[in-house]
């Protein structure tokens, strides 16, 4: 927790350079993405190559490729994009960029430093329960759970949500192709400017934060709340007072 | 992910040779089967010596023996069969071949490179829910889940199922002896030529793929979908629109 | 799996000797009990110092002490009893013998080589569901599950139960003191001579086998079946055809 | 288990000293808190920086800071407080003290040597089920479960609860700020002088014990009982006979 990730090399980088992803620092984004993905696999968030994680490191975006087993990810498997020009400055041979890339970029455009996408079953079930109760326009809403304090109040705002605040997470409809979610994700970000997460119906959730620490801990808190909400529903316990 | 598994030795191999199962390459099938089985044990797929995994490596079939604790499997415990002649070219002393062998071979005959058999409780419960709803002739059918994209479209076809495609997995009846499943497994393969999986009532599932990566990730995606389907059923959420 | 556990020293052993529990062989019962208990902790079988394991090694009985954290057990924490005389030949200082000891001995008297006691929640729930359905005299009965094949047919009999055999596990009432279970455990063993397990109402299960491999894999198969039975009950699926 | 934690240095300690948290002894409280928190993370007790643990070591109180990922906690992240004066004698730079601190101190004032706070979902669900059944004044009450024996009888009393004893855990209402729980926690301790745990509605549980071993194993036993109680409720099984 003490050591800072190293600054990126400023000089010209060949398109296949390993220098961008090789570091002995465990907090270097190339190492961190691999370590986080191993943990996410054990949580059931990235089963069967699903889901993904991206970290912004100064002007570079680190991205896991499409279709790889997340718990086996190696730093050399990562794509690196130049954020300003949206061009890949590192492209692993024989791998394809993640279809989540435009969605991760939407989060970075809102000031995020890290974005996590999970296929958590709790997230999927919550989107189905919301639809059943409130139709396609409904949001996931819950209140009076201590874990809500784990969610930041909103971009540019200080502190976290309080116990008596209502947590509201918008739900967008899934599309045939993941990149086609971008428009509705951005629309949800506009409509709910304080949210750090958007649920995708029958698909999962996107969660972001100022840095990897905040993105990961908010993703954990939300997943905890989604799971609790499903169990509450099974037990006939309402999510909100009214 | 980068390194290729080594080619098998072409010369004559004594029936008890360790050379077939000794390699420093973690992707050698003898090492890989042991590693995969440890992971499958933690997923609850091979509890109490149940389930199994087989990999085709050029003209050799690597098979875990019958009745061993899968999380403790060692490369020297493995059987190796010559695919062309169906004769064992490596037989560990004091161990018996798996009863799943003819079922694994049925998958290899359809072009598979790896076949996984699990006793996952989600698979078993899904077979019971299908029977309850549709009788013994019913298939497991579900649609509109992002994870369906984790399943390939079919042998000789390009790409994966789409979000709006219906996933159909046939269910066959269990038999007193595992090898007696072969005929109905092959019949299901004929009737559903695009399937990469067959559920076995009150027993589990067989999943295969072109290689171990595809077999494992499809098995994970299917197990995720089976679990989600059981939870959806508990919550009164239908699997298909009609 | 290949190497044999070493024979016990035949010479006189001082009551506090470490020689009985020190071995570089991972299959020595002192090492094995510790390793098994770490695994059982992760399965939720020995939470909060509950449950236990005992192995017979020639004329010596290895026993975990009372009230220790099972996942932290060290070989030097173990008691060793001389089976013939029922006297402790190794007593760790500051530790008390397990209250399960007479129950483990009842299993050894029936020819077991290893006995496992878990507080698995699935076992507890099954005892409650049996009582609700059949009253205090009922047994847990289930049929037509592949995993039933994981249970041996009975002492002195060859092979395992078949898919069409009914698994019957007797349930005894819990008592204020664990050692007071001995009489009813022995009575259940008499009444159901083929059983390798006895459920204890609101408490857990005792499972034994000819050796540690058989006791552990049967315990896993039974726990799998108990969990499946609870889930089947939640889904309205019957355990037996009639 | 054999070695004793070392005595604290008696001499004057600079406010940022690492000596208080550096030890090669795995049972030193600074090492132990980190190890315990890693285990608690895997149990789902401290998701998303929630929950915490504190150990009293002679006249020093070791405390995890606020808002850190518990599974990544390092000894140098810990606060150390002088118990007599309630002043911090070690303050890690850039970290804030835990808001749980006054609640941990309330437990130490009752003679505890360790206090654990979890956000376990089972604890939260139990508080909601108690409210639904008995209103805000209700306690969690359950009886006739073997695992109840894992709970000590009460401060200054010998031994543990028996199988036929009723376990009673008071529930207090949650507050906007965690430190505001202190008064009602102390009131519950007064009203239920034998309890080693207090549930907090929609929040989690505080569990303490004479030392870390007792606090941890009682916390495990209680969490097991909470989970079992939720499952019993789903299956229509009552918690008490009357």
UniProtKB/TrEMBL annotation, chains A, B, C, D:
GO terms for molecular function: methylthioribulose 1-phosphate dehydratase activity; zinc ion binding. Keywords: Amino-acid biosynthesis, Cytoplasm, Lyase, Metal-binding, Methionine biosynthesis, Zinc. Its EC number is 4.2.1.109. GO terms for biological process: L-methionine salvage from methylthioadenosine. Residues 31-230 form the Class II aldolase/adducin N-terminal domain. SUPFAM superfamilies: AraD/HMP-PK domain-like (SSF53639). The keyword Transmembrane helix does not apply. The active site is at 146 (proton donor/acceptor). The keyword Zinc applies. Zn(2+) binds at residues 117, 119, 203. Belongs to the aldolase class II family. MtnB subfamily. Substrate binds at residue 100. Pathway: Amino-acid biosynthesis; L-methionine biosynthesis via salvage pathway; L-methionine from S-methyl-5-thio-alpha-D-ribose 1-phosphate: step 2/6. One of its GO terms (cellular component) is cytoplasm. It comes from the Eukaryota. It comes from Microthyrium microscopicum. It is found in: Cytoplasm. NCBIfam families: salvage_mtnB. Its cofactor is Zn(2+). This is Methylthioribulose-1-phosphate dehydratase. Catalyzes the dehydration of methylthioribulose-1-phosphate (MTRu-1-P) into 2,3-diketo-5-methylthiopentyl-1-phosphate (DK-MTP-1-P). It catalyses: 5-(methylsulfanyl)-D-ribulose 1-phosphate = 5-methylsulfanyl-2,3-dioxopentyl phosphate + H2O. It holds the Pfam family Aldolase_II. Gene3D superfamilies: Class II aldolase/adducin N-terminal domain (3.40.225.10). Binds 1 zinc ion per subunit.
């Amino acid at each position: 927790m003490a050591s800072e990730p190293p600054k990126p090399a400023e000089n010209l980088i060949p398109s296949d350079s390993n220098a961008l992803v090789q570091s002995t620092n465990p907090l270097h984004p190339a190492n961190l993405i691999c370590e986080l993905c191993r943990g996410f696999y054990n949580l059931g968030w990235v089963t069967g190559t699903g889901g993904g994680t991206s970290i912004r490191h100064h002007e570079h975006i680190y991205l896991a490729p499409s279709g790889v087993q997340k718990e086996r990810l190696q730093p050399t498997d990562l794509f690196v994009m130049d954020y300003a020009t949206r061009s890949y400055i590192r492209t692993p041979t024989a791998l394809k960029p993640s279809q989540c890339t435009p969605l991760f970029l939407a989060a970075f455009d809102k000031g995020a430093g890290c974005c996590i996408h999970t296929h958590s079953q709790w997230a999927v079930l919550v989107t189905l329960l919301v639809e059943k109760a409130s139709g396609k326009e409904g949001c996931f809403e819950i209140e009076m759970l201590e874990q809500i304090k784990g969610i930041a109040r909103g971009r540019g705002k200080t502190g976290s949500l309080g116990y008596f605040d209502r947590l509201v997470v918008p739900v967008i409809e899934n599309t045939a192709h993941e990149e086609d979610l971008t428009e509705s994700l951005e629309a949800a970000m506009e409509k709910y400017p304080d949210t750090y997460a958007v649920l995708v119906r029958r698909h999962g959730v996107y969660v972001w934060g100022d840095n990897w620490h905040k993105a990961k801990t908010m993703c954990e808190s939300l997943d905890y709340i989604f799971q609790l909400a499903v169990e509450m529903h099974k037990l006939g316990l309402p999510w909100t007072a009214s």
